[in-house]
Each structure stands twice: as C-alpha cells, then as structure tokens.
Amino acid sequence: VKCLCRRKMSDREERKRSDQSPLEDEDHEVRDRHSDDRDKSRSGRHSAEGKRKKRERSESPSSSSSSSSSSDSDSGSESSSSSEDRSRSRKKHKKDDKKKKDKKDKSDKKSSKKDRESPREDQCPRLIPRSLGSDKMIKATYEAKAALDSNAKVPPVTVAVTLTNTGDFALQPVSLNVTTSMNVRLTSPPNELQLLGPGSSAEIRMELVVASVGKPHKVKCSIKYEATGEGAPAAPMTVPCEMLLPCSSFLVARAMTHDEFNALIGSNSTPHKSSAVIEAGGRSFKHSLHLLATLLNLRVVHSMDGAACLYAISVLGHHVAVLAKAKGGSMVSVDMRCSDEALCQQLCNEVSGLPLFIAQ
C-alpha cells in the first residue's frame, strides 16, 4: 500500500511538472528574449556611444586646428592692424616733427637775419683800433687815450701799440722808434720785444705829451725787426709808419653832477658850439651812447629815455659838454659846447666819422 501511495504521489508530481514545464519554458523564453533585447539595446547604446566618441575624437583635432587657425588669424589680423596703427602714428609723428622743425628753421633764419641786420640788445658794440702800419710779416694797430691817474700838470697821452706776427718766421728783436717834435714830446719810450713768434701778438706802451689840443697831431715812427729761421731775409726790416693822435685822445673823463653840468652850459665857460649827427644803423640809443662815450672818452653825467648829457676835460683844462638826443629814423643828434672853438669843431668831425670805427 505504501508503495502504491508513493507511486501515485510521484505520478501526480510528474503530471504537475509536465503541466507546469511549458509555462515555465515560455517564461524562460520570454525572460531570455527580454534579456537579449536588453543586451542588444545596451550593446547598441555602447556602440553608439563608441561611435559618437570616435567621431568626437576625429572631429576634435580639426576643430582645435580650426579654432587655433581662427585664433591665429584673429591674432594675426589684430597684430597687423596694430602694426598698421603704429606705422600710421609714426608717420604722423614724423610729419609733425618735420613741420615743427621747418617752423623752427624758418624762425631761426628770421632771427639770424634780424641779428645780421641789427645788433642784439645784449651785445655791446665796440670800436676797432686804428691802423699804424704793416707788411708781409708784421701788423701794428694802436689806441691812444689820456692818462686818468696822472699827477702831472699836463697829463700824458698813453698809446698802446699791438704788434702781430703775420708771417712764418720768428721776429727778434722788434722795436718801435718814434720821432718827436715841438708839439709832441716822448716822456716814456716804448719797450723792445725780444721775440715775437709766428701768429703771436704783443703790446708795447709809450707816453706822449702834446702842446695843443685844438688839432690832431701826426707822429712819425718806424717798426724795426729781424726775421730768423731757414729762408728768412738776412737784412733787418723797417716798416715806416705815421701815428695820428685825434683830439679825442686829449680828453679825460671826469665825474660831474647834473646840477653842475647845467650850471656849466649856462655859464660863459663853454661859449663855442657845434653839432653832429650819428647814424644809429638799427642800434638802440643805449648802444649809440656807449659808442659816443667810448670814441670821445666822455663820462655820462645823466641819462634818461632818448637823451643823455656827457662831460670831459682836456689835458690842458678845456671843458667839453655834450648833449645827445635820439631822433626819428635811427638818428642821434649830438650838440657840443666847449671852451675851445677848434677843439669843438674837431670833436664834431670825429663824431661824424664814428661809423668807420665800429666793429662789424
């Protein structure tokens, strides 16, 4: 009985299994299909992602190259534009600098032309020395003025002679011989130069006393020298000269107040009058006044705009009072009053010849 029961139970179980197996198989098949679909979809997704990544990898160099090329082109365009801007700015600056330079050159030319036409205000004009004599090897000039610090009854006239060696040989010795007369006496003879080299200059001085001041005095003199060196003349050389002492060299500048000057010209001490005109030549009144005072050895007593009064006394005691006034057309009038008529006229003649002695 137990065996039969067991068989029946086993049969039933087998039937149940047989009944359930098709369903389970179907379920398993469905499950397998779903898993296959999932695997396929996953593999498809993976393959799509792989393809997309491959495309991105393949496209990334080109995009980077394109971006780099675009950036390079942008930077190149920017650099080219900046270089063009810089070149344009440089050209503009060059043009501006050239314009400024041209304007400056024009202004400099105008100023130099004005300076040539008229002397500068800060440059005081000067007088050139008088010529004494010259030859191929030596040149002599001189300046004559009355001594200011002399205690003599008749102050001497100091003559400074400048000797210049214009040749190629050394000169030794060099001496100046003066011939005196009744009107001119030599109180201090000139010294002798032991050596005067080529291109060098030296000064010798002497003092003369004159007997009258109403006319210029001519003094005869001569320069003697010997040239040394290979090819130099064997014999001593002599240059004859003539020294002219103008009447202005007999005047001594003296200080005087304005009231004393007015009293002098108002008295009978200066009865003789004379006048002259100075051509200023574009110079200021101040410069013309300086030239007048230097030429005649005068002292400025009083000066104001366009007018001045000057004074000097001769070595023989003659008064010389001068009134200078600026006139239109670059002219300066000179009115002179003196104690001696001849002296007054000679001084006015010197004033008229002033332009001949102005250094250019």
From TrEMBL:
Region Disordered, annotated ranges: 1-135
Domain of life: Eukaryota
Biased composition (Basic and acidic residues): 8-19, 28-50, 104-124
Domain AP-3 complex subunit delta Mu C-terminal: 248-352
UniProt feature, compositional bias: Low complexity: 60-82
Composition-biased stretches (Basic residues): 88-103
UniProt-recorded name of the protein: AP-3 complex subunit delta Mu C-terminal domain-containing protein
Annotated organism of origin: Hanusia phi
Lineage: Eukaryota, Cryptophyceae, Pyrenomonadales, Geminigeraceae, Hanusia
